[in-house]
UniProtKB/TrEMBL annotation:
Keywords: Oxidoreductase
InterPro entries reported for this sequence: Gfo/Idh/MocA_oxidoreduct, GFO_IDH_MocA-like_dom, NAD(P)-bd_dom_sf
Protein name per its UniProtKB record: Putative dehydrogenase
Molecular functions (GO terms): oxidoreductase activity
Keyword Oxidoreductase (UniProt): yes
SUPFAM superfamilies (UniProt xref): Glyceraldehyde-3-phosphate dehydrogenase-like, C-terminal domain, NAD(P)-binding Rossmann-fold domains
Lineage, uppermost ranks: Bacteria, Bacillati, Actinomycetota, Actinomycetes, Streptosporangiales
Organism: Actinomadura namibiensis
Keyword Oxidoreductase: yes
Domain GFO/IDH/MocA-like oxidoreductase: 125-230
Family: Belongs to the Gfo/Idh/MocA family.
């Protein structure tokens, strides 16, 4: 199997994917947009142009471009019949989503985009436990420092006009988790952001998003960028009490516990079957809710 990497606007996610692919015996990697370091670290073959990546005929491709460039790159790859996974954030603005929606809707190959947390084992176990429960609502606390997004090479993620800022880039994780646990029919109702610690941010380091879900159920997402840890806490409220999970789970491998491994497996399985790992209607709803929260906040 051959997997292509298109763009390295952020390096952590594609690097993690490359390591997970190699663990699964996928060593034929091709990368476009590299300065040489990714190819050297992961044994990938670098190509000079996107057309060269398409010509290499990968069986699947991981896209990690800045949001404004995503629709054109996805159009080229998926238009050539290559299943695509778009690393978060796939969009930074409503215009990005409109253009991506047009591309995905017409693409002959499936396109997947989601937070890896959707496939975290603790989340999927919780969803199974709640299938017969009366769910009232979901609260997600996203604890993720914004300091990395204040560095020059990643500053675009902190810009509300390009990467969406903290409320969008980190809030997407929370909205994704609410969607995974409540199902379709999600929309943003209220949002607010503030700066408490990182006064050099272009956006905010703390935010809250209130979501309306199906059948009157609710979702609340707390985004805490004014922290030094990375942790995601989920509480699902039922008449009998709260069902909770905290990620990463104690003692677990973070790549497994945070969903990276299960996401790459889901993507590869879905690509082989000719479908998206997450239906585009679901992915679009998550992205739209996060963008609406950005405009409200």
């Amino acid at each position: 199997m051959r997997v292509g990497f298109a763009g390295l606007a952020t390096t952590f996610h594609p690097g993690a994917d490359a390591r997970l692919l190699r663990e699964r015996g996928v060593t034929d990697l091709v990368v476009w947009g590299d300065d040489g370091r990714f190819a050297a670290e992961h044994g990938a073959r670098a190509v000079a142009a996107l057309d060269d990546l398409v010509a290499a005929r990968p069986d699947a491709a991981v896209v990690t471009c800045r949001p404004a460039a995503v629709p054109a790159v996805v159009r080229r790859l998926a238009g050539a019949g290559i299943p695509v996974f778009v690393t978060k954030p796939a969009v930074g603005t409503r215009a990005d989503l409109d253009r991506l929606d047009e591309v995905v809707s017409a693409a002959p190959a499936p396109v997947t985009t989601c937070s890896v947390l959707r496939f975290a084992p603790g989340v999927t176990r919780l969803a199974r436990r709640l299938r017969e429960a009366t769910v009232l609502g979901v609260r997600v606390t996203v604890r993720h420092s914004v300091t990395a997004y204040l560095e020059p090479g990643r500053r675009w993620l902190d810009d509300p006009g390009e990467g969406g800022g903290t409320l969008l880039t980190m809030g997407l994780h929370g909205v994704e988790l609410v969607s995974a646990l409540l199902g379709p029919g999600l929309g943003a109702r209220w949002a607010a952001g503030a700066v408490h610690v990182h006064h050099g941010t272009l956006s905010e380091d703390t935010a809250v998003i209130a979501l309306g879900g199906p059948a009157g159920r609710y979702g609340v997402v707390e985004v805490l960028g004014a922290t030094d840890e990375e942790r995601y806490e989920v509480a699902v409220q039922t008449p009998e009490g709260a069902h909770t999970v905290s990620l990463p789970e104690p003692g677990a491998d973070p790549m497994t516990s945070l969903g990276y491994a299960a996401t790459i497996d889901a993507f590869l399985d879905a690509a082989a079957a000719g479908r998206a790992a997450v239906p585009w209607a679901t992915a679009r709803e998550v992205l739209s809710a996060a963008l609406d929260a950005r405009s409200l906040g």
